[in-house]
Input
Amino acid sequence: MCGIIVTVEGEQILRIRGDEHHPLSRGYTCPKGRALGAFHHHPSRLDRPQRRSAESGGGTIFAPVPRGELVTELADLVRTTIAQHGADSVGMYLASGSAFDTNGRRAAERFLSRLGSAQKYTATTIDTPCKPLVAELVGGWSGLTPIWDHEHSKLLLLFGSNPVVSHGHSNAIADPVRRIREFRDSGGVVIVADPRRTETAAASDLHLQLQPGSDFALLGLIVRELLHDTGRRNEVAQRVEGLDRLIVAVEPFTPGFVAGLTGLSEPQLMDVLDAVRRAGRLSALTGTGTSMANTANSTEWLLWALHIVTDSADRRGGMWFNPGFLMQFDSRTWEASSGEPEAGPASRPELPRRFGEYPCAALASEIESGQLRILFVVGGNPVTALPDTERTRAAFSSLDALVVLDVVETETTALATHVVASAGQLERADLPWLLDAYQLAVATQYTPAVVAAQHERVSTWKFFAELGAELGFDVLPRGISLEMADDDLLLDEILRRSRSTAEVVRSAQHGLVESGAVFGWVHDFVLPGGKWRIAPEQLVDQLAFDLDQHIGAHPHERPGSADQFILIPQRRLRTMNSQFRDVSAPGARLEVPSAELSEVDCARLGFCEGDRVRITSEHGELIAVTRISTHVASGCVGLPHGWSAMDVSRLTSTEVDVDILTGMIRQSGLPVRISLVE
Ligand SMILES: Nc1nc2c(c(=O)[nH]1)N[C@H]1C(S)=C(S)[C@@H](COP(=O)(O)OP(=O)(O)OC[C@H]3O[C@@H](n4cnc5c(=O)[nH]c(N)nc54)[C@H](O)[C@@H]3O)O[C@H]1N2
Ligand SMILES: Nc1nc2c(c(=O)[nH]1)N[C@H]1C(S)=C(S)[C@@H](COP(=O)(O)OP(=O)(O)OC[C@H]3O[C@@H](n4cnc5c(=O)[nH]c(N)nc54)[C@H](O)[C@@H]3O)O[C@H]1N2
Ligand SMILES: [Mo]
Output
């Protein structure tokens, strides 16, 4: 999402730097952006379509196959499989690598829906399904994403997000350190709730080092205290439906109770409350620290409740919803969703189907039970990203076909029956379409292809269009044939319905900002009956449940065994999930996976820096190398994901700890034991 300048000589990427004229990233680019050249020339970059041909001593041998032949073969297989087992025997997993390939993502999704299959899985359900869930239940539409009003708000609350490293979760915060500094320089206050003293916490006004999974209690307290004011209550009652239920639901969150749950002192809690009262309106954002916890839905709900109670939601000086430059959500007609899920997958009927997809938690069982027989993976590495690695591997190996579209070899391509070498980021023209509404302004950026696609790499859209044609249906938009289509023609289709024209967007070399935050469109067009449904029954029930569970399992009350820890997720600066593990920007070090432990715990248990430790959960174990840190709270262990050498997915499960409302797997706040490997 940062503007970059790429220096090219022939087909060689020589250098990448931030574009100082880019209105949002202003010359900044992170190490991942600067590593795009190295990624483009990756030693295991995929160059041509391949088919699994033989096994040899644990490895698989792939043979190149002409694309036409591959397409015909796959079309035959899809046709016969669907004839025998129905449309739902073919499925798709779409993830991070496709989020930035606008034409590819759209064609892949269209292909699946033309097949008539319900077997759609995306990274949303292993990342943050609480966000669309709460948006749908409270606001009437799952696509509403809170965005920081960095220009007008005076208080930013961050829960379980570390934008200095991640550059934001569902907020594209380019240039994060400078953004935060500017915000504070103009009188803004930043408060970070995180069990780790993060790089973002270090740049903030106040760091609350709370117990993992206890964010909902802190938010419950603030909402409760604010609603004690009768004037506010009466005012809020005009704007919402269900206020009485909210008031009852947050009643347990007294200062004493919340101090016990969060591990924060009562004076600290009062400081936060004072800051909220002083600011009036505020922006509050969550990230994966809370969205992957078993209290995710309660936390997200109370965060929305806080926005609404302070009249911050969709209001200047509070937070906003980006209608998107390309998507233009503010010019559509909306019908509020009831929030009822559709029927779940056959092998796990207790799991919900929401937002037009099944939860990833059901992917393995759908394959094992024979429902799902052909899987397309589009820009994802599910072998490292999904829980219970061995089960995922076994399930994938049993598929009739695993078709993986990627740019490099991965743990997932290694299990594929067919590999499609996709054209990469620098080899295609593109627009930030899927993340359009995650930006800090109503903005877009067109980028032309920097180099031509080399070898036999193919655009993801073209592959699906060809496969669709072979199966007898159109994947591309009406009026665009496969013969005439190219990247730009397809992007024009999107720009035609955007806030501007293709000509204007294309000629804006450094990206285009239409406006900063805009307010009010959600009130005007989206909210059911013009009011927030502030206390949906499902969430009220969930909160009561979480309270019971959390009190039972709270660290302070657990039988105190010295080797017990709570696992918390974290991102690393130079990797992007499993990407950039083995290539980096010129001169930059590679990331090394490690388990981050506090000095105190290491001293207590006799662990030294670089020791090998065994980390065990209820579901599995892994061996990790320790990294001693003053950042992480005592009692917590921080583990990144996306590594097969130190694979955190071995510790997580698709069977227990699965959220009933969303199917989200618990990946944050997991109890583990740690011991030294002799
Ligand atoms: N460099 C880099 N950037 C990335 C990625 C990457 O892999 N590397 N991945 C991208 C992706 S896919 C995503 S989804 C985003 C994620 O973006 P973020 O959500 O900002 O992810 P993190 O940086 O891991 O921050 C999560 C924080 O939550 C804290 N935490 C853990 N448990 C709890 C808890 O119970 N309560 C609270 N309050 N905090 C908790 C952790 O200590 C950590 O600091 O980042 C994106 N950006
Ligand atoms: N335990 C645990 N599990 C987690 C997480 C955690 O914190 N803890 N985080 C979760 C989160 S937030 C996420 S988003 C998921 C990530 O899950 P995934 O998105 O499945 O994982 P990535 O490693 O990002 O895989 C992206 C793939 O896309 C490929 N790619 C890159 N560019 C392109 C392109 O232009 N075209 C194509 N076709 N492919 C491309 C890359 O080579 C890579 O293999 O993992 C989740 N899993
Ligand atoms: Mo993610």
Remarks:
- The pocket of MGD (ligand 1) is lined by residues 96, 127, 159-163, 165-167, 169, 193-196, 198, 212-213, 215, 287-290, 293, 568-573, 575-577, 638, 668-669 (CB under 6 Å).
